[in-house]
Amino acid sequence: MQPEFSLASTWSSTQLCDLLNACFTGYTVPVSFSEPVFTRRFSAEGVCLADSGVWLSRGEPVAVGLVARRGWGARLAAFAVAEPWRGKGVARPCLNKLFGSIREQGARTLCLEVLVNNVPAIRLYQSLGFQITQRLVGFTAPQGNGLSGESLLSETCDPRQLLAAVCAEGLADLPWMLAPETLCGLPCQAWVLGHCTAVVSELGGVPQLRFIYTAPEFRRQGEACAMLSALAMHYPHLTSAVSVPEHFSALFLRAGYRLLPVIQYEMSTH
């Protein structure tokens, strides 16, 4: 019996959250969302429920795919197949439906992220026309003294100022999760230290570094490293999103941060 498709827009946010959590059960990396986190996160990422889908069989979840849109670009923000249906060939037709529909709606490029050790998924995406563009990593901050860090971080700014600066510099190829458009939709704090700005989100009560930016004329002067050290002292359990392009690793390691064990590939079509 073929799974039945329905648009994600016909489901409530609570239902979609429950369905996605059910499909991620038994996944390589534990994934579970509360409804508030689900709604805030995927709204900030630009998920369009009219372009996203849910598949059921006899009322039980088979797969969920969430698609985000920005201009001519689209991103597979989440895709999960329920454990009883994995390895049975349902992913390809589900993805073909999503990608075919989004292209009909004017999307010219598609992107996604996938764990580097998820070989079957990588091969599937490659067969659908995706290519690996870069490795994305994450970091955890060294343990520090909260009082010392707090004295260094006192100035804040509107995250929209960061969006303006990044756009003015022409940084258009940032990973979707790092794009300032995403940050502006999240509950976050944008800290300023010298000529460096860092954005930390505490969505779900867990501090996560989402972006760090130094004005071009002040780079390679240690300001970003100083900001990372101040953040580590201010947020004792700070991590970064696993969305940092690998070539920035030296900066984080210099500030005493450690690599997280989870690594992703960014993949895209052209």
Query: So what's the overall shape?
Result: elongated
- Helical coverage, percent range: 25-40%
The total number of structural domains is: 2
Low-confidence stretches: 145-149
Mean pLDDT: 93
Give me the oligomer status: single chain
Percent of residues in beta strands? Answer: 25-35%
Q: Count helical runs.
A: 9
List the strand order in the largest sheet.
1-2-3-4-5-15-6-13
| N-to-C CA distance | 35 Å
The H/E string reads: EHHEEEHEHEEHEHHEEEHEEHEE
CATH fold group of the largest domain: Aminopeptidase
CATH architecture of the largest domain: 3-Layer(aba) Sandwich
Number of strands: 15
Largest sheet: 8 strands, mixed
CA-atom Rg in angstroms = 19 Å
Name of the top-level CATH class of the largest domain: Alpha Beta
Computed structural class: alpha+beta
